[in-house]
Amino acid sequence: MSKNVLMSAHFLIVLNILGFAMFCVLYLNSHRLHNDMHYSLQVSDNSNSYQIYAWDTEEDRQLIGPQHGFEPPVYTERQPPPILESAKYTNVYDRAWTHDYPRLSCWGCQFYGKLAELVSFHTVLDAGTGNGMGVRMLRGLGKNAYGIELSEIALKQDANDLLNKNWVRQCSLRKLPYADNQFDAVLSADVLEHLTPDIADATVGELVRVSRRHVLMSISLKSVTDGKHTLLRPRSWWHAIFKKHGAEVNRPLLRALQLTNKSVYPVPSPTQCQYPGNAKDGGVYACCSIQNVWLVGLAAQQNVRNFRYITLANGEIEPWYFVFRKIRNASNALLDG
Q1: What pTM, to 2 d.p., does this model score?
Q2: Could you give the CA distance from residue 334 to residue 337 in angstroms, rounded to a whole number?
Q3: 118/258 Cα distance (integer angstroms)
Q4: Sign of CA dihedral 50, 55, 57, 62
Q5: Distance of alpha carbon 42 from alpha carbon 173, whole angstroms
Q6: To which H or E segment does residue 277 belong?
Q7: How many Å apart are CA 45 and CA 56, to the nearest integer?
Q8: Phi then psi for 189, rounded to 5 degrees?
Q9: Do the beta carbons of residue 302 and residue 294 sit within 8 Å?
Q10: Residue pLDDT, tens place only, 70-105
Q11: Least C-beta-crowded within 10 Å: which of 110, 135, 227, 260?
Q12: Distance CA 21, CA 26 (A)
């Protein structure tokens, strides 16, 4: 056998060995990623180390209620009077729903369906339901859905039928009329940025209180010219206030939902940067516009925008999702009924 033939044979053997080794590496990596998604992974986040789990675990399912039926939630009183805010504050949103926001507006409709695919829940509260479209969508998905809204005008204009069925109620989010642990999930879509700072703590406490397990929402982090975004704080601030009230970040779900600059190619150059926040309360952060076409809400709204905003520190692109688990255990859930 010639020297060239021997060299070729050796070369082929080496290639086969390298190919098999590469196959093993890819297989093991894919197996590890599969385990990361469905079980757990130790992750280092700056100086902190934390354990992440799948976004819808067996423990989660043990802490929620029956996944069938349409029993109403338990109220704190038989006919509790609604807790409202000042007339000046309420009038801003009465006008918004009658003059500013497009008809059929439903910011939550762009992700409520996705949440229903990813997370187990049945009895659900849409906190800040506006015209009730979120409740309609969730009911259409077979969920036992209810809504709270401050603007009575919005409810009477677009959700009078839901009012008559007691599926929606007028009330402030800072004092909800429900008993503890009434909803598998509390959902909210671009609502909390409209709070005034003096009611933020009470509102977050109420959202966590009435949830059995999940608090799933979007919160806008960008400033707007009409001044309605009265509570602009960075992600870390929101995470801290929910933690104070007994809710921890569902990191796997956040990673599954949140769009980042790694998902957009080529990454558009940021322009028109703004610096919202409060230097004495959570800090100031950079939020810039990027060219990226997206559909806001329902297709029927035809609310197509050619740009959206990105928070530069973490590369997160709007809408910004905030997803939490209420810290409970199975024995407490059994006692709650």
Answers
A1: 0.82
A2: 5
A3: 13
A4: positive
A5: 36
A6: strand 277-278
A7: 22
A8: -130, 110
A9: no
A10: 999 999 865 556 778 888 899 999 999 999 888 788
A11: 227
A12: 9
